[in-house]
Amino acid sequence: MCDVPTLGTADTRHETTAEAFEERLVNALNESGLMLLLSLGHRTGLLAAMAGAAPETSAALAVRTDLDERYVREWLGGMVASGVVETDPQAGTYWLPEAHALLLTDKGPANLAVYSQFIAILGSVEDDVVRCFREGGGVPYSRYPRFQEVMASDSGQTVLPALFDAILPLAEGLIERLESGIRVLDCACGRGRALMAMAERYPASRFVGYDLSQEAIDWARRETDRAGLSNLTFEVRDLSDFDVTAEPDAFDLVTTFDGIHDQARPRSLLKGIHRTLAPGGVYLVQDIHASSHHHLDRDHPLGAMLYAVSVSHCMTVSLAQGGEGLGTMWGRERALAYLEEAGFGNIEVHQLEHDIQNDYFVCRT
Asked: What predicted TM-score, i.e. pTM, was given to this entire model?
């Protein structure tokens, strides 16, 4: 940590700002360390094991979780230093307070430890991203073997819990149509968990999911077969030419959940969605809540994190395909312009109380 030089009375305001900024950076380093520790705790099952458990030693916790004690003990040290785990030094025991367990495990309404995994995933491709800064181009999807898995967990906490009570009802009359039986397409569906939930809830409707990732589609097919959902199919498909290849008037509902901004050619996908919607159809979009102007993102509660995700994933995977590189933070203004350009003349924008990260667009022709 560097010393801040004394600049004299004329520069007091600048000196104070420098000190405050230094404090912020030191805090950021600590919090970044905490994110890595939380990711380890989530993936190894340590956080889940400690939720609701009585105080215990590192050795007892290691036995119970079938993990190496030395690693468990060091992890516990970081959790104590960060104020997440409590300890009794005389007894040598550790425990996770209930209030913390409710936010870091499935014991509560949202497991925020899920999101800590993004830090390690994005950090793992830093060398590739540095190369792109110097040479251009992008980092392909294949360099992110766990991203689809973590995104599925993310949507499992933002989209799935609100899908039937808050998201689908945004489009008036849509629930009744799904119950009666319509044709539904989810573009850039990932592992397809939203589609699975809808296919189970609305057996009279037919559902299709497209995604570029073979890994994601293979997972979705296995889970669909296991659930016995005969009204749901998945297909590996490059959507960069969807404006030309989309079947006209084929679907009554098209959805994209966090699926536009990392496409190679988002304009082509949106035009294809407009093309494939039948008369009276609805396009329901969930995408990142942001502005298309940097200065208006200054007060965004997740702004820095989402720009980091953009540089290290969403923007660069698009550029790796020779695409537009729209990026995570493309913003509401640009989204509305692209939707209008694609042919949607009736667009409603919504935000949900539980979801500070996303906007929801209901689009009709």
From this structure: 0.87
